[in-house]
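Q: I have 652 residues here and want to know how they pack in 3D. Can you give me a structure?
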Amino acid sequence: MKQSLTRQITAGIGMAVALLIFNATTSYRNTLKLVENERRVGHTHRVLTELEATLSTLKDAETGQRGYLLTGEERYLEPYHSAIARINEQVVELQQLTADNNRQQQRIRNLKIAIDSKLAELEGTINLRRQQKLEAALREVKSGRGKQIMGGIRQQIATMTAEETQLLQQRARESQTSATLTILTFTVATLVNFLLMLAVYYLVKRDQTLRDNAEIKQNQLLEQLEHDRHSLQLTEERFRLAILNAPLPIMLHAENGQVLQINSAWTEFSGYQHSEIPTIEDWTEKAYHNRKSLVQADIDRLHQLNSRISEGEYMIATASGETRIWDFYSAPLGQLSDGRSLVISTAIDITARKQAEAEIRMLNATLEGRVALRTNQLQAANEELEAFTYTVAHDLRAPLRGMQGLAEALLEDYRDILDELGQEYAQQIVNSGQQLEELIEDLLAYSRLSRTDLSLQVLDLESAVVEAIAMVKADAKSSHAQIIVQSPLPAVIAHRVTLIQVIANLLTNAIKFVEGVSPQVQIWAEELELPQKGQTDRDTAGELERGTVGQWEHSQLLMTSPVLPVGFIRLWVEDNGIGIAPEHQKRIFGVFERLHGIESYPGTGIGLAIVKKGVDRMGGQVGVESQLGQGSRFWIQLRKHDRNADDFAGGR
């Protein structure tokens, strides 16, 4: 009986031990699988976070580009430069995180190509803006190419995010299944083990039961210690790999100067292997030479502090003899097993940045000289233009007047000798000389408008119109023209002589280009409304763009201030002439632009060019509304005089 009981007890204990081992083994394997599943879930979360960060970085680059295009100020490019610095690191991080997924790796390569295209597009528009070609830059933006590239990038990131989300869901389900299986296995095994031990309890003495329980506890403790040891090894391995593969130079060194580890980046940038710098003293000897004592003092200070410090910038000598500039940061990592303090030091190579700063300082130092040189060049160009104007005004007129005088003398003194054809030829010489004289006068007037400083002041628009009408009185009388002025006309900010010449040129055109009827000219003015507070500059500029000449310059003026400080006066000159086709309405304001032959309508083709140049110089605009056979309505737009905005009446 005792032998049978012993066999039963032995069998029961054997079964309990076997079940315990099975339970421990199963729980251990399930726990490892659970930990691995949780790690994979966390890894997928990191990929999703990095994808979102990459897209956000591109948005920052676009924000910096748009701010710079609108303002032209370099400070708005800070988000753009920061994005450029981060984007490649983020793409590399994505490649590392998805190294086990070939499809995602291919997508990341495609994403890298698209990102490079987007960055190239952003850089192109910024360069156009830097070359003072805002219109070209805006046209490039409006072309939609950048938006199309960005849409492709969003689609690629969305595809990658969808796959990672699917992986996340799958791994979460696996993790949940593993956890459930672990709990279920442990619960069932524990229950069976409990029942078995309960049976043994009735077969053995209490003291034997206690010994069995003590043995079970000891086994559990050993298993926990083994698990902890394995976890510690994994943590140490991850830390070692993180140090070795970090993109920045990293060194681990102990209190007595021993260099415990340097990573591949340190070796790559400095050229020194770990075997060449086993101690801090070897490093300072090779990298700092005669400055090593100063640097060593800073290194010794690291082991006396318990907080992260910034050591600052140091010039180091690489193994190849090149001088580089590193910015060092260090922090304590606790103590080694032998009691020595452990410090981690990282560095950033800022050589390129320092060289760029030196170049900027040099450019700033030579800026004044370059400005003076440019000023001298402009002065020389103006002097050459003055000399050319003098030649046109004097040297060219002298032979012209001689030719005219001889032709007129020929008609007066030899009219009886010349036949009808000879008289016609001589008269054509006189007429051509007069036309050339008028052309020279108009060219000189146009040249003076381009280089003369115009002092703007408050002018009575009505008095300027009266003087302009007096200038064209002879032409109006000969053509039986009727000029009607709708008074009163307000005051404007303008240059008196230039404004009178502009109005006179418009009246001359209104009288000249008429067929079959007497010229009828109407003159009136209207005040343009100020934009309401809160209306954007871009909206205001858009309202003014209606196919008129000079609108782009005015749009630029509007975009420089949130609310216009003064109003505008628009002066209209309407005629009943032959009209102008819409496709020619911008051409007519160019120099020598004629829509009709000189035999049909006399003139030099410079009159309207003088109008536009004069109005531009006075800070205004000019335009026309016309249809063929229905007359034309020319208008000029100038700033209105406002007693609360007299500071705008200065010179241009």
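Q: Anything worth noting?
A: Residues 360 and 490 are 52 Å apart (CA to CA). The chain has 18 helices and twelve strands.
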